[in-house]
Amino acid sequence: MVNLLTLKNEIKKSYEQHNILEKSELDWLFCHTLSCTQTELFKTEKITNKKARQIKRIAKKRICGIPLDKIIKKAFFYGESFYVNNNVLTPRKETEHLVEAVINDNNKKQNLNILDLGTGSGIIAIMLKKHLNVSVTASDISFRALLVAKKNARMHKTPIQFVRSNLFNKIKQNNFDIIVSNPPYIKSSEIDSLQNEVKNCDPHLALDGGFTGLSFYKQIIRNAPQKLKKSGKLYFEVGAGQAQTIIKMLNKNFYNFEVIKDYNQIERVVIATKKGENI
Question: CA 233 from chain center: how many Å?
């Protein structure tokens, strides 16, 4: 048997030497491996040699720059657990603001039709389906990402229509109440300067927003009016410093703009309403 506190302090010291400073991540590693809650972890004094070796193996990979969620293939988002791998973007806390905005705006409405463009792991589509009375179509250009999204939908028992599509290319419907998207928004020139665990473990397809970082917004904004109902709404997650530029891009066919800041007071969500014929 191995003393848990001794092992934890050993890994904590190693983490600190490699600038991994998030305390909750260490607890998450132990809780995952031991299949216990944090409360149960605090009460545990000793663990088996087999479990200790397993924890050390995972910690070694983490020190090599692989994110913990990609090692254990599990990530948490909006209070729920999701399967992830290297074919999808690791869910970010910032994206919870996007999901929350759609839920708060529409939680009293019935039978809405939502399109999630660039669904990735499916987290946005699944949480909207779970929290709202809606039909959800979710698309992605990546076949492998869609496999992950479908697996998550099965795990969460959420019926969603998945479509392999390059943005609107294969989307036949044109009667959506809401289009929601967290598209790639990092400039191509900045990809190589990202943290190693991002640029090496997240698919560049989900990161690279082209020369200006705005390539996908331009395409979505150009085509969204044909896919939205009258007064339909568009919800975007955006990169730091992009919100006001995106609002200018939206101005021709959309109005009634709203911007929501994230936990760091960065403008992170842009909401717009499709103009009617008389606006």
Answer: 20
Strands (E), 147-186: 161-164, 176-181
Read off the tokens for 16.
């600190």
pLDDT at 58 over 90: yes
pTM listed for this prediction: 0.91
Instruction: Measure the CA–CA gap between 173 and 123, rounded to whole angstroms.
Output: 22
Residues 91/83, Cβ–Cβ less than 8 Å: no
Query: Long-range contacts made by residues 24-29, C-beta under 8 angstroms, separation at least 24?
Result: 25/62, 25/68, 28/68, 29/55, 29/58, 29/59, 29/62, 29/68, 29/72
Rounded CA-CA distance 275/263 in Å is 30
For residues 98 and 110, give the distance between their C-alpha atoms in angstroms, rounded to a whole number: 20
For residue range 153-164, list pLDDT tens digits in order. 999 999 999 999
